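Data deposition worksheet. Section B asks for the primary sequence of the deposited chain exactly as it was used as input, without tags or linkers unless they were present during the calculation. Section C holds the resulting structure in token form. Section D is free text for depositor observations; keep each observation to a single sentence. Incomplete worksheets are returned to the depositor.
Section A, Depositor: J.P.
Section B:
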Amino acid sequence: MSDRDEAIGQNLARFRGERTQQDIADAMRSLGYKWSQATVWAVEKGERPMRLTEAIDVAGILGVDVSDMVSTRTEGMFRMALSKMMDAYENLGKVVSDYENAQLLLSIAADAASISESQAVETRDWLNLTAARVAERVHVGKKIASGDMRFEKDPKTGEILGRGPWVDHLLLAWQIDGEAGSHGEHSEEG
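Section C:
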């Protein structure tokens, strides 16, 4: 059988978790397939290929996406990482919006209140600290450069494990972004 059949079998075994092979066979029989416990075993061992319609229905039984059912481990990792990236992007947008709303609320409250000079200084500091500047302060690229964040490295060569053109692309983007910030483009003086 192919590597893909082996991956599908491993996915079936992983996704069924505590459910028995017989449970899966029974569920598939209830959908009209002639599956037995031996069929599930053969699929999990990569000895029997799964038809597309079977994969769709098994995925439904297990409550997973069919693409997860038929993917190799690296494809699954990529889809998971891409999904996390999209979720993080959406969450970051919400956080930036909340931060800017808090700044607006602070400016409105400061305009309406009689505040002391020290409160005025603190208010000015908060209003000058834009969301972009906050992001710059927590920039992951800078954490890597400072040694606060470490990648696993090959003990012999010192190269980042799993490093390829996409990791190089990201590290270059972080470096360029960091250099832009160090040239005074993000000065915190107001």
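Section D:
The mean pLDDT is 82.
Residues 100 and 131 are 7 Å apart (CA to CA).
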